[in-house]
Amino acid sequence: MKRISLTQHLIEEQRQHNTIPAELRLLIEVVSRACKTISHAVGKGALGEVLGTSDASSENIQGEIQKKLDIISNDILLEANEWGGHLAAMASEEMESIHPIPNRYPMGEYLLLFDPLDGSSNIDVNVSIGTIFSVLKAPPGMANPTEQDFLQPGRQQVAAGYAVYGPQTVLVLTTGNGVQSFTLDREMGSWVMTDSRAQIPEDTKEYAINASNARHWHPPVSRYIDELQAGVTGERGRDFNMRWVASMVADVHRILTRGGIFMYPADARDPGKPGKLRLMYEANPMAFIVEQAGGAATDGRHRILDIQPEKLHQRVAVFLGSKNEVERVTSYHNEA
Ligand code: AHM
Ligand code: MG
């Protein structure tokens, strides 16, 4: 088998399609290197004394208790990306405000956003977790980056990806020309392309939702799930299977591999809080990847990539994956 490394892929993309300027290539290489370091820390588990919560008082901006690995991963990404000269600023799910590049380093033209370790509830139980990232261009003429500069709709992303730390460590990437996957060769320390064009089937018999919230769901979600659960004798005329890892990276990775629909809807608990997932760090990068693989992603009514963000840490309802299912549940919302 001819092995194509991440570096070779990026250079060839740059040559053939001109979609990856040199600075963006450098940025992606640095992020992917940071993911290797995080993968290593994750893999050590209790031996590296990296499990558990950081300390009793440590909460992130969302009011969630931070795990040691959340903080370690955040620091790894910040340190790796500060000095390369390709970024103007970063923003993270784990930090209240944006992180401008320190004055001692040159300022580049990109903005990097990340969820350093997604699936925090799975860290201590040895279940797949991951890193999600999104890259935007800084607005032209920007001098000192502010939060406002990050508030661009997801369709303006120039790259997005995730690394999933599971039985294998896999990096999934899009720069707007399809979706490629790279598996970490742990002995060589290199990313090797293992899928050059991921495609999500339009139809599926598998869905993912946290069903413990069923009593809070809005009617369009209940209607859709009831239909799936009615199985072969119901309206859909076939059985559907359910999977829920509770790490978005792992659930999305399964969908990218064999299809499915992933849902984290808004519900009746708190009308001012639309869903759990964050638009800028989770929904946008995943929506970009899913669309590039032939799938669809909506908030129940609108395309996620068209949402104009109002806040850095904004939450959003998410329905993504196999196109025909996403369109169906979206139509139920729009009829209601
Ligand atoms: P996190 O970023 O704090 O880890 O939260 C996001 C995670 C997603 O990965 C996952 O889909 C979801 O939260 C699971 O939520 P729940 O615990 O309600 O099932
Ligand atoms: Mg997350």
Automatic annotation (TrEMBL):
Its cofactor is Mg(2+). Keywords: Carbohydrate metabolism, Cytoplasm, Hydrolase, Magnesium, Metal-binding. CDD domains: FBPase. Coiled coil: none annotated. Residues 5-195 form the Fructose-1-6-bisphosphatase class I N-terminal domain. Mg(2+) 2 binds at residues 115, 118, 282. Mg(2+) 1 binds at residues 93, 115, 117. It is found in: Cytoplasm. Belongs to the FBPase class 1 family. Homotetramer. This is Fructose-1,6-bisphosphatase class 1. It comes from Noviherbaspirillum suwonense. The lineage of its organism: Bacteria, Pseudomonadati, Pseudomonadota, Betaproteobacteria, Burkholderiales. The gene is fbp.
